[in-house]
């Protein structure tokens, strides 16, 4: 039976980073994945260009932008391995990149460059990589762990679980990490799909469906949380960055509130239209500021026939309320099939915040998405994977 100092389960972003760091320290490391290619989610991320970090994914914003039952848990790892550290690595490999918006860094070329970079680093760190290999059983031994793989059994002193969340089962997500946590008696917080499009009941959907394909800049809010980004109407409901962001906060039964005209004082705009273009219908007035099909639908919803010149202040207030505080009640989300991440995971109280070692099970570490830390959209989740992987890599 081959013995390793450390075995890392899952060759995604977090697992590759942990294996590289441990290998660099001279540890004998085995990295295992059932997929035949490493980093499948890196490959499809950012529309194929991988939004590999966000310059704002730092300790300063960490408590707000990384959701967890313990919002402080991520801070230590985020402070020890920063976006600047990952950018340095990307620059050393001469991967051209650019900031798209809101601090989001993307490859100019392809996400494959990030995967190739990590594979090169794994090779340099002399990590043994076994792909296309199932993990059949994990057991605690006196000296560490025994892992039964489809290729045979192996043992190790330190075992790191980096098998990700439940999102996109088609791409190899299995929830193995949660099962292992359960096996070792570690608590797992409730998990749910996040960064995911929201869906609507049939009646509401009938109204939204004709808008499929329309995109507009909006502020989408839930409670005190607000995101100003694109909102996209789809055949199933609402999507786009503003919706994906709010989906991490929304819960069944709640409404979301949409401001369709975030840059304008709507009342001022409507009064101006009433004075200057009194013969226009409300749809036509709105179409000067919003996509035409959306303006049409809002006009129908308002049911205020006639010309804006004849509208009372009360009529204008009704228009203003609809475009600035449009309340929508989703019934659900598209689920793990399309969710970018899983909210919740291994309860952070079970883990050491410096090393990600389970307090009850010495030598067993959990990193990346499987842990109850979920970032905002826009490179935050990869930064969490790199930072937690790096921190575990120093300890295993
Ligand atoms: P990850 O899921 O990457 O890796 C887990 C690995 O474990 C996989 O290789 C899997 O095959 C393996 N595994 C699972 N179960 C196993 C089992 N039973 N046996 C063996 N192996 C097993 N984030 C971001 O910051 N910027 C972005 O641009 C995007 N874009 C994006 C697009 C899409 C479509 C998705 C679905 C997700 C994103 N994300 C993102 C989120 C990001 O991909 C995610 O947060 C990280 O990949 C998490 O990294 P991990 O290494 O923790 O898990």
CATH topology of the largest domain: the name is FAD/NAD(P)-binding domain
CATH C-level name of the largest domain: Alpha Beta
Question: Compounds present?
Answer: dihydroflavine-adenine dinucleotide
Q: What is the helical fraction, as a range of percent?
A: 25-40%
Taking the sheet with the most strands, its summary is: 7 strands, mixed
- CA radius of gyration: 24 Å
CATH superfamily of the largest domain: FAD/NAD(P)-binding domain
Give the integer mean of the pLDDT values: 97
Q: Output the structural class.
A: alpha+beta
Q: How much of the residues is beta strand, in percent?
A: 15-25%
Overall 3D shape: elongated
Number of helices: 14
CATH architecture label of the largest domain: 3-Layer(bba) Sandwich
- Count structural domains: 2
Low-confidence stretches: none
Number of strands: 21
Protein name: Membrane protein
Keywords: FAD, Flavoprotein
Cofactor: FAD
InterPro entries: BaiN-like, BaiN-like_dom_sf, FAD/NAD-bd_sf, RsdA/BaiN/AoA(So)-like_dom, RsdA/BaiN/AoA(So)_Rossmann
Structure explained in plain terms:
33% of the residues lie in helices and 23% in strands. Helix 1 (13-24) runs parallel beside helix 14. It has 2 domains: 2-191 and 344-393, FAD/NAD(P)-binding domain; 198-333, Beta Barrel (Elongation Factor Tu (Ef-tu), domain 3). The strands form 5 sheets. Strands 1, 2, 7, 8, 9, 10 and 20 form a 7-stranded mixed beta sheet that branches. The protein has a 7-stranded antiparallel beta sheet with strand order 17-16-13-14-15-12-18. With 396 residues, the chain is α+β, with helices and mostly antiparallel strands. Residues 5-394 form the RsdA/BaiN/AoA(So)-like Rossmann fold-like domain. This is Membrane protein. It comes from Devosia geojensis. InterPro entries: BaiN-like, BaiN-like_dom_sf, FAD/NAD-bd_sf, RsdA/BaiN/AoA(So)-like_dom, RsdA/BaiN/AoA(So)_Rossmann.
